[in-house]
Amino acid sequence: MHSSPPTHPSAAHPRTAKADSWQAAWYGTRRWSFWLLPLNWLFVLASAVRRYALLRWQQKTLATPVIVVGNISVGGTGKTPLLIALVKWLQAQGYTPGVVSRGYGGRAETYPYLLSAQSTAAQAGDEPVTIYQQTGCAVCVGPDRLAAARMLEDQGCDLLLSDDGLQHYRLGRDIEIAVVDGQRGLGNGWRLPVGPLREPISRLATVDWVIVNSPSADFAVPGLADLYFIPMQIQPHALVNLSTGAAHDVSLLAAQSVNAVAGIGNPQRFINTLAESGITAQLHAFPDHHAYTASDFAFANQWPLVMTEKDAVKCKAFAQPDWYYLTINACLSDAFWSAFAQRIERVMEQKKSRFGV
User: Fold this and answer.
1) Whole-model pTM?
2) How far, CA to CA in Å, does 153 sit from each of 183, 227, 356?
3) Burial class of residue 305 in the structure, from the number of CB atoms within 10 Å of its CB (0-12 exposed, 13-18 middle, 19+ buried)
4) How many CA atoms lie within 13 A of 93 on its CB side?
5) pLDDT band for position 255 (50/70/90)?
6) For a Cys-Cys bond, which of 19, 42, 148, 310 suits 126, CB 3.0-4.6 Å?
7) Beta 280-285 vs 138-141: how paired, if at all?
């Protein structure tokens, strides 16, 4: 078993302190969140009523197949790299996929908002911009995912993927994919606010696939020990210079000390990925979807800087010559892609039979 290079101590942004406290309660040994059990019961009841009402009276089924990629927990699990991998695979098979997203962190003048080459993270959110730049597919954001999906239909998309829409039951779906963090799992297994879960663990038994991001050797879902899941591995691809756009092999910064910037749900995952590439990093964690300014990067040292791609889309305007972002690939088994292809074909036939398209 190989050991990863040591990392420098993390330097957390002040605004992450509150988030770290919740993370410690949900995924660590802290237990103070159990004082919130009365709120937990209210959340569970409200969620059940909302889900029933949406499924019973408001869910709309589109003629275009819809694939939802989401999770049942709060925080980063690896949905975006998986969604990008799905889009690229669909494009390679001749499909014209489009992506629906909430666009969290962005504020467009009107919704639904269709991304263009000029779209910024301030307008559309960092993740939709990253998806658009990586795939070139049509991406539409807005709080009403159904309206966004219909706009993508008008753009000629023959498959729609909903980014983080597992609980958005108003939008009917044909395929559901749930992503789980293979290192943190499902935390303490409790629903919000006592734990990190938006829905009960049993929800995983109802989706088409459970994708586990970088599962540990002994990974298992509590209460669903026999649950079949697909492992997904994140592999570093290249280091891209923010100023020039030039791509370099990840070995460029190997054996060097760097500042690592991550404004994602699980920053430690980024550090682990860098360590596996031989890059020793000091983590500077920021809140998820943080709106960066140049002053955020006034670090005490002059080391090169590496950040995630979704952070980079907000920093190019003031990037320095030795700033890079890491591109990654989500890798899944051939068996998954074969099963995914068969499922897509069946859904397409069902849609033709029902809607005549």
Assistant:
1) 0.93
2) 37, 35, 15
3) buried
4) 17
5) confident
6) 310
7) unpaired
